[in-house]
Amino acid sequence: MRTDVVRLGRLSGERTGEMMKFLSSMRADRCIADADILVDIAHVLMLDKQKIIDREITKELIPPLLELFDEGIPEEVFDDRFEDVHAGIESLIIEAIGAEAGGRMHMGRSRNDEVATCIRIKLREDLLKQMSALLKVREVLVALSEQHIETVMPGFTHLQHAQPTVLAHHLLAYEQLFSRDFDRLKEAYARVNLSPLGAAAFASTGYPINREYTATLLGFDGVAANTMDAVASRDFALETLASLSILMTNTSRLCEELVIWSTSFVKFVSLDDAFCSTSSIMPQKKNPDTAEIMRAKTGSVFGAFTGAFVTVKGLPMSYNRDLQELTPHIWRGMRDAKESLRLLVDMLSSATFDTERMREEAARGFSTATELADTLVRSYGLPFRTAHNIVGRAVKKGDLSLTTLEEAAKELDPGLSLMGKALTQAAIDEVLEAQYSVSLRKATGGPAPLAIKIAIGERKKQLDADSCVIDEKLAKLKRAKEDLIADARRLVPLQAE
Ligand code: ARG
Fold it and tell me: Roughly how many angstroms between the first and final C-alpha of the chain, as a whole number?
C-alpha cells in the first residue's frame, strides 16, 4: 500500500479513516487534478531551466508526469489517506521512479502555492465557460428582440400596468443586465489569471526559481507578486462568487417573470413542455418547474458565496487550512450558475410568446395616461403637474373622454377649459393607442422602433466584441498548454514515440 510521503517525517501514529476523511480535500480535488499535472510539469521544467535539478533528474521526472497527462490519473491517487491530490501525485511519482529523482519534484514549492495555482487554472477555464454560456443567453435575447420590435406589451412598475412598451425593450433590458454580468466575470478573470506558483509556503524559497517562467508556461498573464498574499488570499474566488451571485439574481428575476407570464391569468408566454412538469394529482397542470428551480439555484449560489466569505473572514496571514473548505464552494457556485445559464438559453429560445395577449393588455389600466397628460401639455401649454392632475382625476371618474377631461379640468380650476381648442376626441383616441405612445418614445434606449433597432445593432456589436474576448483567452490558454506539453516531450524524446 502506497504511503503518504508527506507524513513520513514529522508525524507518527495511525489515523482513523474518519480522521483522514475529515482532513482530506480529495473529493473537491478531482476538480483540480488535471491542473495539478500541468503545475507539476511546469515546475519541473523551471527547476531544470534554473539548474536547480540536473537534466538527468528531469528526464526521470517528466515521463511519469506525461503518462498521467496522457492516460489520466489512476484512481488510487484519490485515496483519502493522501490528504490531497498533490500528496497523492507526489507519492505516486516517488513510487514509480524512486525517491532519488521523485523526491526532488517538490523542491522550492509548497502545497500552499500549488493548490492556489491549481484553483486559479481551473477557475479561469470555468470562468470562460461561464462567459460563453452567458454570451449565448444574451444572443438569444437579442435574437428574440429582433422578432419583437413591434410587439406591443404593457410595461409594469409595482407589477401594475404602467406604460406600453414592446417585448424587444423588455428583453433588451435583461440583455443589458447580463452584459454587465459578463463584464464583471471578465474583470474577475484578470485577477484570477495570475500565478501564485513559487510563493512556496508563503515566503518563497532560497532556490533560484523563476516565477515568471512558470507563469508563462501555465498561460498566466503574470504573477501574484507578494508571496504571502499569493498563498493566503482567495478574494479572486470571492469576487467571482459575488459576480455569480449578481448574475443569478438577474437570472432569477427573469425566471420569476417567466413564471408570472405563464400563469393562466397573464398568459404572455407558453414554455416548451420539456421545461415544465405536471402534477401527480391534477391532470391539467403544466408547471414552469425549470424556471422555479433556476430561481432557487440563486439561493444555492448565494450559499456558496456566503460559505466562502465566512471562511476567509478572520483568517490571520498567511495560509490556514480553513482555505481548503472554501474551494468546494467555488466549484458548486460555478456549476449551479453554468447549468442554469445553459438551460436558460433553450428555455428562452423554445418559448412561445403570445403577442396577441400582450397587445390586448398593452393599453389596459389606463397605461397611456402619461401620453395623454403630455398631449395636454403640448396642446394647451399647461404645466405637466396640472395636466397630470387633470388626467388623474379623469381616471378616477372612469374614462378619458374629452368630456370627462373637461369636467376634471374644471374641478381643478374653474378657469380652465379644454373645449374648442386644439384637442378633439379623435386626437385623444389616437393618443390612447398603445402603439402610438410607444412610437413617440424615441429617446436613446427607448421602445420606439428606431431606438430599438439602433439598440439591437449596438448590442450585436458588443456581442461580437465579447465573443472575441473569450476566443482570445481560450486560444492563449490552449497555446500555452500545447507549448508546455511539447517542451516537456522534447526533454524526453522517447516519450514522443
Ligand atoms: N489541500 C490543501 C488545500 O486545499 C492544500 C494543502 C496545504 N496543506 C497544508 N497543510 N498546508 O488548501
Answer: 32
